[in-house]
């Protein structure tokens, strides 16, 4: 890899992001709202989570009101290092504060990626493009490493950085470029 390409890749910024799915005991689901409200929580010491909502897919497919608690950045990282008991306490406090009752938790998910040795983040944000315009940055980033060797993925599509369709579009674009080169060679 050239030093220029290395510098471009190094200036991509990575973010931490966590979804925590929570199921309450079935008889408590009636205590939750029927609307799929998206509730933002204040970013302070008290709150580990930044937002709370219901998962519409789980509701539609399983008729269960699964709560989704989300958190990001340093709080996302912290989440991954909590013991299951500590996390359960945080979930209980959040539900009590938001919905006003003591929850009986049936189960909850706890991703632990950030505790892995080589973990750097969940996905990228749009790059800061140091010394370059957005267009210049992403067109240099997307030149092949060597002839017909492309790097693809969400990080390489500035407009859709961090999203699955960004990854999909970079795959399509690189495949088109390779096909065009092959056709031109025939
Ligand atoms: C919690 C969370 C929620 C998200 N929610 C959404 C959402 O709602 N909507 C949305 O559009 N996007 C969402 N995303 C982002 C989306 O998942 C990514 O943008 C997308 O998966 C990126 O695809 P990719 O192919 O670039 O990379 P990845 O999906 O990360 O694929 C890279 C692959 O390479 C493999 N790999 C890594 N290193 C090596 C190696 N050395 N050798 C071999 N294989 C290797 C990895 O195991 C992985 O399978 C979310 C991401 C997270 C983490």
Features:
single chain; 186 residues; alpha+beta; Polyamine Oxidase, Chain A, domain 2; 2 domains; two-stranded antiparallel ribbon; 6 helices; 7 strands; elongated; binds flavin-adenine dinucleotide; FAD; Oidioi.mRNA.OKI2018_I69.chr2.g7543.t1.cds
Order of helices and strands: HEEEEHEHHEEHH
* CATH architect. name of the largest domain: Alpha-Beta Complex
Number of structural domains: 2
- CATH class descriptor name of the largest domain: Alpha Beta
Q: Walk across the major sheet and give the strand order.
A: 3-4-5-2-6
* Derived structural class: alpha+beta
Find the CATH topology of the largest domain.
Polyamine Oxidase, Chain A, domain 2
The major sheet is characterized as: 5 strands, antiparallel
- Percent of residues in helices: 25-40%
Low-confidence stretches: none
Oligomeric state of the chains in view: single chain
How many beta-strand runs? 7
Q: What is the approximate shape?
A: elongated
Distance between the termini: 29 Å
Portion of residues in beta strands equals: 15-25%
Small-molecule components bound:
flavin-adenine dinucleotide
Computed Rg: 21 Å
What would the average pLDDT be, to the nearest integer?
92
Number of helices: 6
InterPro entries: Amino_oxidase, FAD/NAD-bd_sf, Flavin_monoamine_oxidase
Organism: Oikopleura dioica
Keywords: FAD, Flavoprotein
Domain Amine oxidase: 3-179
